Hints:
It is a single chain. The relative contact order is 0.20. The protein has a two-stranded antiparallel ribbon with strand order 1-2. The protein has one domain. It is mainly alpha-helical. The two termini are 32 Å apart. The protein has helices at 2-15, 58-86, 89-102, 104-113, 117-132, 141-144, 155-161, 180-192, 211-227, 232-237, 243-260, and strands at residues 169-172, 176-179. The protein is built from 11 helices and 2 strands. α4 (104-113) packs antiparallel against α5.
Amino acid sequence: MKKIFVVFFLSFLFIGCSKTNSSAIAPKTDASSEQDIFDDFDDFDNEFETQAVYDPLEGYNRIMTSFNDKVYIYLLDPIASSYAYIVPRGGRVAIKNFFYNLETPVRLTNNVLQFKFKRASIEGGRFLVNTTFGLGGFFDPAKSDLGWESYDEDFGQTLGSYGVGEGIPIVWPFLGPSNIRDSVGLAADSFISPLPYLGNHMFDYDIPQTTAMGAVIKAYKVINKTSLQLGQYESIKKDALDFYPFLRDSYKQLREQQIKE
Length: 261
């Protein structure tokens, strides 16, 4: 773990993080960059209208959307509901904060790649403060005490900021709606994340050493996060006349908004 502290400390000094408050930069929407199953459904707004989209994989995407829907209804939601009954909300929020703090390398790197150096310095500062004074990241004194908001950026957004098109829509099992650009971005982010999807162990700070271990950690992370969003998926789904194109178009517009910010 010493190396990761050295990396963040040098980044912090190089970028020159001075006293910064939340009003210095308008914070991004609090949408996760990880694209876990049905993440950020609360950001999908029912006011989005279905648009004409080139979707050669529509047949497959509809099948996969139905599969993910059943996984949520019959597996994820019951497990998350039981978990929420057992673990107090305060504990679940702390665990979510811990995982979010671990993903700092992804946000910091992509802010740098987009030349958002001030935001990158804040991410580095948040990591140092929350890891030390926030008991390893379980608490967020960087935000509550210093007013340092987080700035979510992923490699899909980085590619989009350089003008790379989104490509065709694709729905991944368990991960939900995406597109070709964001799928490439997700793979790239996995290489620098302490929680890589494939347990590739490229860096000393990687936590899972095997694919199985990585899958278990990711599953627990999703269950914990879902337990804090119970009921949101159902409220979104009930107003959608055709669920798949609604998710596809909502995801498209959400990502366009994130790239512009």
